[in-house]
Amino acid sequence: MFDHEQQVFQTPANQLPPGDLTITCRSNTYPKGFYCTWTQLHRTFIPTNFDVDVQHNQRSLEVQPDPFHKNRCHVRFPEVFSSFLYLVNITAINSLGKASTIYSFEESNIVKPDPPERVVATPVRNNPRRLEVSWNSPSTWPEINSFPLKYFLRYRPLIREQWQHVAAKDTEIGTWSDWSVAVHATTWIGEITSPPDVDPVIPEDSCFGHTDLKVFKVGVTGTRATYSTVFHGLSDWKKVLALSIG
């Protein structure tokens, strides 16, 4: 049955010429460069190749194919803060014909960093209503000093579905990253002095319990070189925020 279906599947009547493509471009290594990916809106059932041309300010840019993804290429930015549009023209070619799709974008619209890394939330000693949250900038962001990032932190009690927005700042270039992986933490509950064979007694005002288990995610966006990081006085590779709960 499988062989028969495979034979029918590949008959000339089912083979199609290329059609339109869906193209997206993104820069997660700004200001080094960007990458573009594309998919066919319908299958052709025969081998299809792609010819990629990228233009900026009436000039063709060098296009590097991705070594792992057939439908992806990489391009270096010829300059930064450019007001000229980038034009991406991808032509799909097979034995039955060809079709071209053009995609245009502004530099600032495709900048999207990867999520922050190594997010950690820890209790603050002797303070049952505060947590300290730290994270690293995305390792794919190449020039953190020249192009610093600003961050958006949100949290919620584990039993609630709605996130509480703690800090936000408008972006000047690009869009927010995806959220980091969520981490969980509880606030400080004081020293446990009960013997091992006795259940510990937790004071009612310790703010400990299922409502104090918090979930954290951190987002990040790119800024122009004139911007400083949101949290001043901290190293650029690691941000620390003392978060007040409640």
TrEMBL record:
At the top level, the lineage of the source is Eukaryota
Q: Which GO terms describe its cellular component?
A: membrane
Query: Does the keyword Glycoprotein belong to this entry?
Result: yes
Assigned keywords, A-Z: Glycoprotein, Repeat, Signal
The reply on keyword Cell division is no
The record's GO molecular-function terms, alphabetically, read: cytokine receptor activity
* Residues spanning the signal sequence: none
Write out the similarity annotation. Answer: Belongs to the type I cytokine receptor family. Type 3 subfamily.
Question: Mind telling me which PANTHER family this protein's record contains?
Answer: INTERLEUKIN-27 SUBUNIT BETA
- Name-wise, this protein is Ciliary neurotrophic factor receptor
| Organism annotation | Knipowitschia caucasica
Provide the taxonomic classification.
Answer: Eukaryota, Metazoa, Chordata, Craniata, Vertebrata
